[in-house]
Amino acid sequence: MMGKPDEASKTTQVIGESVRLIDKSSASTMTIIFPRDMPISPFLLPEVGPAWEKIRQLGVERDFSPGGYLYREGDPPTCLHNLLAGRVRVFIGHPDGSERIIAFAGPQTTFGEYGIFDSLPRCTSAVAVEPCRVLVIDRTTLIAAGKADPDILLEVGRRLAQKTRLVTMHLAADGVPARVRVAMILTHLLDAYGVVDPDNTAHLSESHRVDDLAQLIGVTRVTMSRELSRLVADKVVVKGGREISILNMNVLRAIAEEHFF
């Protein structure tokens, strides 16, 4: 959704690995280095609240092994999912067998809202990345409870609106240069998982394969690696082994915001 994959050039940089990010910028004196001011992100963040607690009471817990599908494109929308533990990849499959990742869901996030109201087949697939425990909330039970308590349907509608904005964000990036997309996804990672260490660096509490990051922004692994190399050359990031260090967070954010972000 952020444009077709780009294979403009090649690089020898290794890309099939997990990413760890550290901010080593000494220019900022802010206590909160990574403000969570981007509510719409492909890395879904936990949400709780009174209305959601009512919805949780309607669910049944299920376990999924890595690689297990919670649902597939084309399935009838029989339920809503709330992840209790683990991580889930939400994606769209292409006819050639490739995937376009829409989001990663972590604990206390919801997905599968599409179809709750219109009964149309699912437009995405969701698969467990690691062992998962999921609260499965039956669609018929949810709607019945919502008729008795409108706050329930309002909460589901709010979360559906967030997912719609997420898809719009993907679409808005169509045609945006790959450099901007890479900076954007690194910024989203830091906003979602950045943890400040005692030595005033920061790391990610969760890691993702570089391959997956490429699929999130609609570029090939080659392009993702090339743009990371450019950021290294510009002294915005440093890459060593399985770790990516951020040297200048302000510059990274400025690159990410050159267009829509």
Automatic annotation (TrEMBL):
Residues of the Cyclic nucleotide-binding domain: 61-142
Domain annotation HTH crp-type: ranges: 176-250
GO cellular component: cytosol
Alphabetized InterPro entries for the sequence: cNMP-bd_dom, cNMP-bd_dom_sf, Env_Response_Regulators, HTH_CRP, RmlC-like_jellyroll, WH-like_DNA-bd_sf, WH_DNA-bd_sf
Superkingdom as given in the UniProt entry: Bacteria
GO MF, one example: kinase activity
Swiss-Prot/TrEMBL keywords: DNA-binding, Kinase, Transcription, Transcription regulation, Transferase
Keyword Transferase assigned: yes
SMART domains: cNMP
Gene3D superfamilies xref list: Jelly Rolls, Winged helix-like DNA-binding domain superfamily/Winged helix DNA-binding domain
Keyword Kinase: yes
Protein name: cAMP-binding domain of CRP or a regulatory subunit of cAMP-dependent protein kinases
